[in-house]
């Protein structure tokens, strides 16, 4: 941090319908893509900037206490918001991506407000770490930034460029409200790259986001074991011919075919469905059967459904059963899309990769059935199927975007 209170950054962001996945310089953050209005009487108590221990504790866990005022020409609904976990417990209705809406991510304010907030809090935490006081003003310059949009949005003429301009064409003003001194952050972006979701994921599977060499190790262990391979690395993906990536998100599923890491023309598309839509339908069905259950956001529902704390965890089992009922339709759509790609590519698919946060939700219920379908479609040489491990599946797009940001000229 320079003496003029300016921090320069290289950032990447995969702004999902369910969760933000962000890397700011080196640290990574994952938090729900939700916000809520800060209404009179609902504000957090301001922390005295002279109470250094309290300030330090707050900034050590800032992701749980984000309270910002946003003023930016890129935002349609400027205002004061709780962002992330605090929005879920604020007492006002959370504002979530409407996964059932036709509005695309490129038009929504949520991803930008969440991103501007996390960048501003991270900058403040780094300043405080270096100087041990809360400043009134900070300047943040993101020199290189990579992000992504669903494939079908990218395909609309002008959307990729107009989305990049929402970041690069303006100075964005963010006010942090947690302290007795308001912190005013001037945020700007210099170079912006917008990648298609799914394609970013394959970049993250081929290249190590830290070292920028071919990826290897644990991320491929399940594939090596299932197909009795001696080894497998990111370089093998470049040699696999046509690779079909299925990126299962909250509100969209992106299908992308790459060959040697490059998109195959006319073989990339999205469907407006995802585990978030399945979760919202499951919540409706659950509350019809058990009206005593309070309303909840889909992130909370999926977390409960997947916690699986043992044979006596009836709550998790019931939630999971309702979710599985809804995801059956999703699985049918995935199979039909794979059949279409099989026909279009004359059966020439060397590998199928399933990733995204939704892959974790579907795997136990869908793995064996999906493998059977693929074996029937490919009677001679069925492609390898890689279900990216839970540890990596949600952040694979982010990995690819980090690679993009680091190599950006």
UniProtKB/TrEMBL annotation:
Pfam families cross-referenced by the UniProt entry:
MreB-like_C (PF21522)
Q: Which domain of life is it from?
A: Bacteria
Tell me where in this chain the Actin homologue MreB-like C-terminal domain is found: 245-367
| The protein, known as | ParM/StbA family protein
List the lineage, top down: Bacteria, Bacillati, Bacillota, Bacilli, Lactobacillales
